[in-house]
Amino acid sequence: MAIDVESLNARGKAALAALMPDPVALVSIDGCGPGGNFGREGYASGALRESIDAAWVCSYAALTGSEIGKLPQIRVADVPAVFERAREVQRYWAGTRFSQRRDLMQKFIDGVVHARDELLDLIQWENGKNRACAFEEVYDVVANAAYYGRHASKLLAPKRTGGAVPLLTYTRTYHHPKGVVAVISPWNYPLTLAISDALAAIMAGNSIVIKPDSLTPYTALACKALLDRAGFPPDLLQVIIGSGPALGEPMIREADYVMFTGSSATGATIAREAGEALIGFSAELGGKNPLIVRADAPMPRAVRGAVKACFASSGQLCISIERMYVHTSIWDEFVPAFVQEVEAMKGAAGFDWEADMGPLIGESQFNKVREHVEDAVAKGATVLAGGKALPEVSQYAWAPTVLTGVTPEMDLFANETFGPVVSLYRVASDEAALRLANTTDYGLNAAIWSSDMRAAQKLAVQIHAGAVNINDGYAAAWGSMKAPSGGMGISGIGRRHGLDGIVKYTDAQAVATQRLMHIGAPGRIGPLELGEKKWAELLSVYMKLKKWIG
User: Fold this and answer.
1) Which position among 118, 126, 284, 416 bears the catalytic label?
2) How far apart are CA 315 and CA 188, in angstroms?
């Protein structure tokens, strides 16, 4: 069934216009804030707009393949000016009270909730994902904003800590904002991964410069529009447009901290550059995430949960499942039921809620998925479901694919596909499943399905992954806002969410006040002479007591 491109584009354009009447005016291209000098005057159309001294880049809708619009790319030479503007705003913002930030964050939440449908339309139009997965993004942004809006003041409050000398040393720890945080966000979750990290950094007193992926810049601009509408300082969050290879290094040179979400290879490059600049760096990177189906897995719940875990957002999710280890005693029951559910999935390019999957983001990702599947089949893998393109859905749609017989010489055995493909393996024990699950350099997410919670917990803590979900694929851990989220191994550095997700955007400072006497040999105290030797002897007695008193 052919899609109604004209109707879909009309709805996408309407959503775009409702969220931001003039997207170009929200783009930072120099140190004068969004829109540059033209933005200050109010953008005109036509020749004046095109006269901006910048290269213009076209953005296309993954849902329809049609052009969304053109945006100006920042020149590398102008990146320092944007960060200098961000630094000016940050100095003001750092002096605001947490209550002021909280009130603005609550207004931002109201704006997101009010614009829910328009945000869903824009995410789908620009990214191509189905509506239910687009809704996950909107919900996640509200959850992040609510958590840090309500709890930032407590998480970052000055805290009294133990001093050097009991009763004589009074020590407090303070958290100061880093300054300007650079956020480099990907295309796969263009709302969540552009703004959620920024919200924590903003509540900590920082300003933000975001470089969204070139495939999904408009969703990031919608985030800025909603922050501006809520009353945040206009330049507190700036969005710059351009390629990662061109802008990454100059951004890192100017930033005080970098947050990156993307591939492990690019993450390693950014980590090296951040290290050379001696600034902090946090990243969520790739994954080859395993799911273990134990012999006592609760079916059919496990079947439905596994389908969502593998194919949410068409598999274009860092924490989606690409490997599944099924106990041999339930293989003949679980696998046919799983395949049946997969074959029943509805792929569609549209704005309705019925679609289980949308098209892939574009040609490059489509080709990667196709090449991984074709390579596996050519080398002996068996296709249980899918394994083919869906041109009747979209130019870049791919059927949810289930493979068995995947072996180490196949490209997708150990490498991340980042698409709707999962490999199934039969295992005879939990020990075998655990060994295979941990046979990877990745360590982002994992899942276990079991009716025995104690056994599942025991298994979970042995899996090399930053998050493990029991009887869920990814949402249970990801949605636990008070818990840290991130990867082990080559899947990331640092954590988002919880205390870790906001403290990383601060510099900790210890302020110690010494009472009555300084720390050191006091010399003469009345008739007593406490020189360095006697002082050391006194401290040696104290040292023996330290193991008991801490």
Assistant:
1) 284
2) 10
